[in-house]
Structure formats: structure tokens, C-alpha cells
Amino acid sequence: MNKLKKEYLFFKEQDSNMRTLLKTNMIYALVLPVVEIFVGAYIMRNTSDPISVAFYQLFMYIGIVATSLVNGFLLRRINVKYLYAGGILVSGLSMFAMMSIKSLGFIELGAAGFVMGAAAGFFWTNRYLLTLHNTTDNNRNYFFGLESFFFSIASITIPLAIGAFISQIDGKEVFGYLININLAYQIVTCAVFILTLIACVVLWQGQFKNPVEKDFLYFRFCTLWRKMLLLSSLKGMVQGFLVTAPAILVLKLVGDEGALGLIQGISGALTAILVYVLGRIAKPKDRTKIFVAGLIVFFVGTLFNGILFSAIGVIIFVLCKVIFQPLFDLAYFPIMMQTIDTVSKIEKRNEYTYILSHEFGLFLGRASGLILFIVLAYFVSEDFALKYALIMVGTLQLCAYPLAKNIINQSTNTVNEN
User: Fold this and answer.
1) E strands, 140-255, where?
2) Are 65 and 118 in contact (CB under 8 A)?
3) Taking the model in full, what pTM does it have?
């Protein structure tokens, strides 16, 4: 209890806006697993087609890029707090709209994916901007460590709880209504929307400012930022697979959503504690070690999945994925923000310039990864795509380590010179 009190007091010592942002993101952490996992599982259940899941995801990424661009223009007139809250709210509404659709053809999937992406675009770009303005390089490890701790805990408890809820309520009669699987999903979505409202109420406690410089649309960048864009593309490639592949693999080889939640809960608790401790004690110089550890874990997981391609292989892969994601993000986001701090001073531009171009870098990676999956699934077989596309992506991710190390060194040297 004394240690917990010490950690709470340390949290209270942080800047007021930083605490508000963390509390908002902690509440939204309860929403994100539904968006990332169960939307894909919902589409898979209603279409029985992994390509449909990938198609939906591709249009979601298009929506993210489109609204990231629109968000830049809106920031000239509207406070970032309103835009961030809008992204949080629309994510809940768009899920409900998608799950109310009677049929899920490619047109409906494309429209639903684009709307969900629009919400995510407002959410993530404004989240990056708020984090960049309200943290420093010295406390970003702590910020992302604490945030990842709650995201990891949520990724355990929420899928487990929702999977149990869906399996228990499906086919039961409640207040005279027979609950089917789709209605169960809609009940979950209503709960998600209530959480988004609570997150917005907490966000309103903060006092956040927009960038002073209004121009943000540029196409030429210095070498350092071009390297960061390449790193973001590598991240995007694996990110696209991590949203769709676990749901597809578990439903195909293991079982239902309850199994999906149970598998992720096995290793997530220890990972959450590990990430918080690393964020609390790690220095900026330790980021490359954390980064490469995450990459190796992910690569090992893809090998087990590809070689075994069975329930055991999927379990090992998902366990590795649960460990990889928070470790990778704990190192990646501070690296990204340190680079934005550096290049915005070199080129004397609005920070949102780099947040927007970073989204384009992510999109290129996400789109190329999903297109690779769709091409392999369509022209070879779905099993081949699920086996070997992940290994290909995992191998490419190993190239991110020397690139990230070079970016950190160049950013640090530039700061020291100035």
C-alpha cells in the first residue's frame, strides 16, 4: 500500500494538463479493445470472410488519413479539446451505426470503415498533439508507461468480460426480448458510448492550446524526418495486421470471442506491470533496448504461428503480440515526439505538420500490409496469408531497430549542438 501511495503521489506531482490527458486516455482505454478486436470479430462472424475484415480495415485507414487532413484546417479555428472530444464520441456512435446495418456487403463495409476511421483520425492526431504540448522528453517514458499499463489491463479485462457476456447472454430471454448475438454486440456498443461521454467530461478539466503557427501542409522535409516516416511505415505495416489477424486466427483455429479474451489475459497482466515499471525507471537512452526487445518477441510469435498453424501456435502468437505491442509503443512514441520536437525547431514549422505526415507514413505501411494479406489470400489461399504474411511483416520489423537507433542518435546530437 505504501508503494501504491508513493506512485499516486508521483502522479499528482505531474503537470495538471498531463494528468487530465492521462485520466481521459485511461477511460478511453476501456473502449479501445472493443474497437480493435471485437469489431473485426463482429465482421468475421457476419461475413465468415477474412478478406472482408481486411477490406473494412483498409477503408478505416483511408478515413484516418482523410480526417487527419481536415483536422489540420479545423485547428485554425476550433480548440483542440473540442476536436479530441469529437473523435472520442464519434468512435462510439460509428460502432453503433455499423452494428445496426442489416447486411455487410463491401459497400456497407467500406462506408462503416471510413466512418470509424474518421473518428480514429480525430482521436489519434489530437491525442498526439496534446501529448506533445503537455509532456517533455524527460517524462514521456512515464506518460506512455502509465498509459500502456492501463491499455494493457483493459486489453485483458475488456475482451474477457465482453466475451463472457456475449457467450452467456446469447440465446437468452431478457425482459421479454430474445437476445441474439448481434443484439448482444449492440448492448456492448451502448456501454462503449457511455464510456466515451465520461472520457469527454474528464477531458473538459484541462486547459489546452492550439499551435500558434497555422500553416501545416508541407511536402518537403529534412533527412531526419524522412527517416521517421520510414519508421512509421514499418510500424503501420505491423499495426494493420495486429488489428485483424488475432481475431481471424482465433475464430478460425481456436474458438469464439470468449477464447479470444482468455488468451490475451494470460500474459497481459505481467506485461502491464513490466511496462509501467519500465516507463517509471527507464531513461531516454534506454528506448532502443526496449524497442528491440519488443521486435524480437513479435518475430518469435510470427514464427510459432506460421510453423505450427494450430490452436497452440495462435495462442503463442497472441501471447507474444500482447507483450510486443506495449513494449514497442513505450519506445516508439517518445522517439516520434523527440523527433518532432527536433525537426519543428530546425524547419520552424507547426508541430501538426509532422503529426499529419506521420499519419500518411502509417497509412502507407498499413495499406501495404493489408494489400499483401488480401493478395496472398485471394491469389494463393487464406491459410497461406495467415501463415506467412505475418512472418514477412515480422522480418521487416527487425529492420526498424537500426533505423530507430539512428534517428535517436541524430535527434540527440542535433539537440546537443543547439
Assistant:
1) 173-174, 177-178
2) no
3) 0.83
